[in-house]
Amino acid sequence: MMRTLWLSLLLVFALGVSADERPGKAAIASAHYLATEAGHEVLAAGGNAFDAAIAVSAALAVVEQTSSGIGGGGFWLLHRAEDGFEVMVDGREQAPAAATRDMYLNADGTVNRELATTGPLAAGIPGEIAALAHIADNYGRLPLADSLAPAIRIAREGFPVYEKFHTMLGWSQQHIARWPAAREAFLLDGEVPPLGHVIKLPDLARVLERVAEGGAEVFYEGEIAQQLVDGVRAEGGIWTMEDMAAYTVVEREPIRTRYQGYELVTAAPPSSGGVAIAEMLNILDPWPLDSLSTPQRTHLIVEAMRRAYRDRAIYLGDPDFTEVPVARLTSRFYADGLRAGINPRAATPSMMLPGNDLPWESDDTTHFSVIDADGNIVSATLTVNLSFGNRFMVPGTGFVLNNEMDDFSAKEGEPNAFGLIGFKANAIEPRKRPLSSMTPTIIKGDDRIGVLGTPGGSRIITMVLLGILDFMDGQQPEHWVALPRFHHQYVPDRISAEPDAFTPEEVAALEAMGHTVEVRKGRWGNMHGVLWNRLTGEVSAGSDPRSDAGRAIVR
C-alpha cells in the first residue's frame, strides 16, 4: 500500500533515522555484468558513485554498442549526499553547424528516413566523453584515467558475444557490413559471430587511453577530433573541427514534482521525460489507483499518458533554442484542467483533444542506477539512438556513431523511427540538441529512496511511470524491473501491451471503454533500479529479466 508522508515521518522519528545516515553498502544495476563489475571496481579503489558512473558508462560503451557509446550521449542525474545538491549533466548530442531544417527531405517533400538514420549524415556531435570528463572534474574523487581503466582493459581483452548483442547485430548486419571498420570490428568473415565469440576492440582501447591521458580535449580538439571529422566527411557527413570544439556539457536543474508524499527528481529538457512524468502524476494524484480494478486503473493511467504525449509533441524541445513552458506543464492547476476532461468510463479519442489537428525512439538505449555507501546517487540513461546508432564507424576508432538527428522533427507532424511526432519546438537547427525520451529518475522519501530508468525509445516515459507507481505500492527493485508493461503515446491511438500485461477479460473491458488494445508478441525495455530502505538499512537492486546480460550487485 502507498505510504503517506505523516506515517513515514512517524516511523523515522520512532526509529531514529537521521538526515546524515549512510547506506553503508553500494548497489549498481546495469545492462551488462562487466559494466556493473567495473563500477564496483572503481568504488573499491576509493571512488564514489560519480566515479563509478564513469566506469559503468565507459564499460557499456565497449560491451553494449548496440545501445550506447562514446559516439553518442546521454543524461546523468546526480545526487550528492553531503549537501543534497542535485543536477542533471546534459551530454546530449548537438546538431552540426551545417545542419538545416529540411536536410532529410526528398525532392517531393517526404522524409528520407534512411538518410536520417544510417551513415555519417545522421550523426550529431557526440557528448559522452565531455560528460564523463565533466563528472570526473567536478564530482568524482578519482582521476578520469582511473575510472576509464576497466573499460580500456575490457576493450583490449575482449568480451563474449551475448544473446542481446547477437540478436541486435543480426538486425543491423546489412548496414554494418557497408562500412569496413564496423564490419571488421563486429562481424566474423562478414557474418554475425556465434554466442560466446570474443570481440576485441583495440582501436577503442587506444581512443580511451588517449582520453585518459589527455582529457576530453584530445577527443574534441586534438588528433581524435581530426580523425573523426575526416572520416565523417569522407563518407558524406557535415561535421567540422569547429563543431567538435564547440561542444559543451550543460548542467540543468532537474524537474521536481511530488507524488503520494515522495519527491521525484527527474530529467529536464531537452528530455521530455521529466515534464511528462510530472504531468502524468499530477493528473493521477487524486485517484485511489491501488483500490481500482485493473481495467479502471489502466484506463485512467492511459488517459494521463495520452495527454502528456500530446503535450510532448507540441511543446517540448531544446530549452536553449525554444521556450518550453515547463512551469505550466508541470503545474497542478494545469493537471486539474486535463483531469477534468477525462471520462472515467470511456476513452478520449486522440483526435478529439483540443489544441492542434492530429500531427504527427526501440530498446536501443541503456540505463544504469548507482548508490554508494555514502548515499551519493547516479541515475543515468545513455544512447546512440537506434541499434548500433548509424552503424558507421570511422576507421581506427572502434566505436559507432549515433543517429540522433532522427530524434529531431525532420518535418512537422511526420513520425520518427519510433512513431513520435513533433513540431517547430523540435525542428532541426545548428548546434541544437534533439528532444529525448530518456528519463533517469530518483524518488526520495523519509522511508525509502529509489533510483530507476530504462531504455525503450518512445516507451521510456511510460515504463518509468509504471516503475514509479510500483515503488509507491511498496515493491522491491526486482519487481519494478520485471513488471509487465503497457504504453500509450497519443499517436497512434492505441494501447500497446506486453503478452502478460492483461488477461483476455481485462482487454475486453478496456475495449468496451473505447480503447484499442494491441497485445504484442515481444517485450520491451531494460530497466535497472536500486533501493535504499532508510528504515531497515537494507540496500537492494534489480536488473530487468528481459535482458540476459544485465546484472545488479550490492556490496
Question: What does this 3D model show about the protein?
Answer:
The protein is α+β, with helices and mostly antiparallel strands and 555 residues long. It has 19 helices and 18 strands. The strands form 4 sheets. A 7-stranded antiparallel β-sheet has the order 6-3-2-10-9-1-18, with helices on one face. Strands 7-8-11-12-16-17 form a 6-stranded antiparallel β-sheet. A 3-stranded mixed β-sheet has the order 13-14-15, with helices on one face. It starts with a helix and ends with a strand. It has helices spanning 5-15, 33-44, 49-63, 113-117, 128-138, 144-157, 163-176, 180-186, 202-214, 216-220, 223-234, 241-246, 273-284, 294-315, 326-329, 332-340, 460-472, 477-482, 504-512; strands at 27-30, 73-79, 86-90, 159-160, 198-199, 250-252, 255-259, 262-266, 365-371, 377-383, 441-444, 448-452, 486-487, 495-497, 517-519, 528-533, 539-543, 551-554. It folds into 2 domains: 5-11 and 252-360 and 437-534, Serum Albumin, Chain A, Domain 1, CATH 1.10.246.130; 27-251 and 363-407, no CATH class. The longest helix is centred in the middle third of the chain and has 22 residues, at 294-315.
